[in-house]
Amino acid sequence: xxSTLTYQLNRLLRGSTPFVLTLLLALLSVVPTGISxxxxxxxxxxxISVFYWSIHRPYLMSAPLVFLIGIxxxxxxxxxxxxxxxxxxxxxxxxxxxRRVFIGKAFLLTWWGYLLVAFGIAVISWLVTCxxxxxxxxxxxxMTQFFLTLLVFPLCAWGFGFLQNSLLRHT
Length: 171
What we know:
Blueprint: H1 3-15, H2 17-29, H3 38-41, H4 45-56, H5 63-77, H6 83-97, H7 99-102, H8 107-133, H9 140-166
Membrane topology: Multi-pass membrane protein
Family: Belongs to the MreD family.
Pfam families: MreD (PF04093)
């Protein structure tokens, strides 16, 4: 293999890191834990990843990739096909449009921004699910998932930041 081909392959692999990582997080979200009721309130790792990478590396987390991640997630969870894609595309669009607000600012501002976006997505998801099932679904699991997601956001953001600084510095 020539050095140019090796360089291009290395760049492709590094550039696909956010997409592949988000797919792995989607898989992680459906792994059975043995904890009763945890599947309902598993933190939304995929939405955290889409939000983070849409702000920090938007060219590596494009809308078509977000759509594919959503479809993959719907297949894994059994959600109505396209619902997760729609929600992730909304998160991606908001993060992308507000990118200048978050870049270079304190982490608390990004966390606050994610809180607002995630709360809106949680409420919209609950409404759509109620309409889809034609029944009033309890709000407690949705809010529990929302709060768990907020609690793990700093840890995920730190991990993504570490990955970005060490692996994606030259993409």
